[in-house]
Amino acid sequence: MKIHITNLYGAWGTHALAQRNVTKIARELGFTEMGLYQYPVECDSKEELRKRLDGITSAVEEGDIVIFQSPTWNAASYDRALVNNIRTRKNIRLAIFIHDVITMMFEGAPEKNLLEFIQIYNMADLVIVPSERMLAFLQEKGLTVKKTLVQSMWDLPFTGEVKTPEFRRQVFFSGSPNRFKSITFWNQDVPLCWFTNKEFEIGKNGKNILPSGWKNTVELLTAYTEGGFGLVWEQTDRSEYYKYNQPHKLSTYLAAGIPVIMQKGLVHEQTVSEQGLGFIVDSFEEAADIVTNISEEEYYQLVNNIKNISFLVRGGFFTKKLLLDTVNYLLLGL
Questions:
Q1: Mean pLDDT per 10-residue run, the chain (334 residues)?
Q2: What is the pLDDT of residue 40?
Q3: H/E/C letters for each residue in 195-220?
Q4: How many CB atoms lie within 10 A of CB 3?
Q5: Is the Cβ–Cβ distance between 229 and 167 less than 8 Å?
Q6: How far, in Å, CA of 255 to CA of 311, rounded?
Q7: How many other C-beta atoms lie within 10 A of the C-beta of residue 66?
């Protein structure tokens, strides 16, 4: 018996990085990678697609376990065809690890597209969802899979040294201005350092926004440890989606060991509050007020609170547990 996990290539961005990080951790546990590629699927004929999928799944044999990281960011028809191909093997146990539900992320997506993805999820023996709220939503829309697991948190595997953050009155944010337009209207006295690979115009009356270019993981963690707070905020369009999905930014800030400022109502609001990892706020004004008035002693108390969870995130422990729980549940029902 082998355990396989899909991994996405040909894509750039947080969604691709998340799949690669999960796969990296899975390989440490002895899982076999099943590489996929993001490409214009419509260019393939049915025969070409079948050959492509046969090649991807060639190592999968009777009785194996497959963990399918969803979506592939190709067409839903591709995801369905891949799952169907995997299902041709006897006694296959299939888990679908839902990272994102594309139709919930963007304006104008028709309901039928969501139902198409749910039909794909229903082909699994087990689904992993990003939150209890997402599970309830999908079940309301037709998810029927009985075995379910809820992801605890994203990890950010990192083996390098991370220095203790310094005390500075500034806020960090990373992300596309196209998705987070509201951040361009930040107009507080506290500076906001924004890491993005896209150029953007500061919104009307916006001020104290300090744009910076894209940074890799090492550069980003190094920048964060210069000191300050990490901002976790909802996207501008379909903002309710951030109340259902796992925020990657949160784990990156925690990996660097800096306190977070999170918008009220998002996933992990309770964790941040109860574990003393930062603050929950309703507005940018409230966020800036906290940064302006916090003492150095209070800041370092938050940094101390984060040390243990930072170790877990950088070591991939949340993902390791999730993957092992998936295998146990599929094989033993535990």
A1: 95 87 97 93 87 92 97 92 95 96 79 90 98 96 97 94 94 87 89 83 77 86 94 79 89 96 92 95 96 97 97 97 97 84
A2: 84
A3: ECCCCCCCCCCCCCEEEECCCCHHHH
A4: 19
A5: no
A6: 7
A7: 27
**CB-count exposure of residue 93 (10 Å: 0-12, 13-18, 19+):** buried
Q: CA 85 to CA 51: how far, in whole Å?
A: 11
Whole-number Å distance between alpha carbons of 293 and 303: 16
Can you list the positions of beta strands (E) in the chain? 3-9, 32-37, 65-70, 93-98, 126-129, 147-150, 171-174, 192-195, 209-212, 229-232, 260-263, 278-281
pTM here? 0.93
Residue 61 corresponds to which tokens in the numbers above? 């044999």
> Would you state the pLDDT for residue 333?
80
Q: Which two tokens stand for residue 229?
A: 């707070």
Predicted local confidence at residue 296, as pLDDT: 97
Cis upstream peptide for 71 (omega within 30°): yes
Strand order in the sheet with 260-263: 209-212, 192-195, 171-174, 229-232, 260-263, 278-281
- The reported pLDDT for the residue numbered 198 is 67
User: Angle 176-177-179 (CA atoms, 0-180°, nearest 5)?
Assistant: 70
User: Backbone phi, then psi, for 40, in 5-degree steps?
Assistant: -75, 95
Quickly tell me which residue has 């903002």 as its tokens.
239
- Encoding tokens for residue 97? 């690890």
Q: What is the pLDDT of residue 101?
A: 93
Phi, psi of 126, rounded to the nearest 5 degrees: -155, 145
How high is the pLDDT of residue 243? 87
